[in-house]
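User: If only I could read backbone structure tokens as easily as an amino acid sequence. Those tokens are not coordinates but codes from a learned vocabulary of shapes. Could you go through the record with me and say what the backbone is doing? Here is the record:
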Amino acid sequence: MSKKASKKNAGTRLNKYIARAGITSRRKADDLIDQGRVKVNGQVAREYWYQVQPDDTVEVNGKSISPQKHRYMLLNKPKDTISTTDDERGRDTVLDLLKLPEKIREGLFPVGRLDRDTVGVLLLTNDGDLAHRLMHPRYETKKLYVVRTRERIDPHEIDTLQRGVELEDGKASADRVTYIDPKKREEVGIMLHEGRNRQIRRMMEAIGHEVVHLERVNYAGLTTAGLERGESRPLKDHEVRKLKNRVKLK
């Protein structure tokens, strides 16, 4: 890198700068640097310690980036929306539902994914560090779902879900499974800390049940109380602090 790009004056460490731009977490930003996908002032960045200065130009994958104010949005996701930032088939995404200026909306991304037909709590943010920790198995972020099936779920099947079932990507188990109403055995609450693709639907299929309704009602303590389906709101300061405390992020 040039003399200018090697200076160590007080600034923002390069991986932190990338995370604040909403690109990824600081840890994964280091991988981008290793892969030569980050440039500072037109030159490939190599030094993790580099302190980005106000007059520097930083690019990731050829696109100029800059830090953004961290934003945290809670969405009550409806059916028929995709949990991604864009869709090559032109289907509605969760970003399309946010009542925010396009420039702000485009910097956000969903923390984890809900499949197209699953509804309920979805967090969107541009805080790469928080998103990374919430999704990392180490922090065991709790997720609570309401699951309704076509047929009755027997007590021994609840035990099976808690002990674990074999899926194509390994054994999966629920932290807790319980009837919501003992008189309605087609509906249970399932708590997980894992986050595999379509995990609950696949677990239910493994014991012979078809899911007809799936709703995430709690994610890391967040609920959709007061939000109609398809509506969103910014998180309150105390909610953000609680999320960061959960994953030991200052």
Notes: Helices lie at 14-20, 26-34, 102-105, 128-135, 155-163, 199-206, 237-246. The radius of gyration is 21 Å. The longest strand covers residues 211-219. Residues 1-8 have pLDDT under 50 and may be disordered.
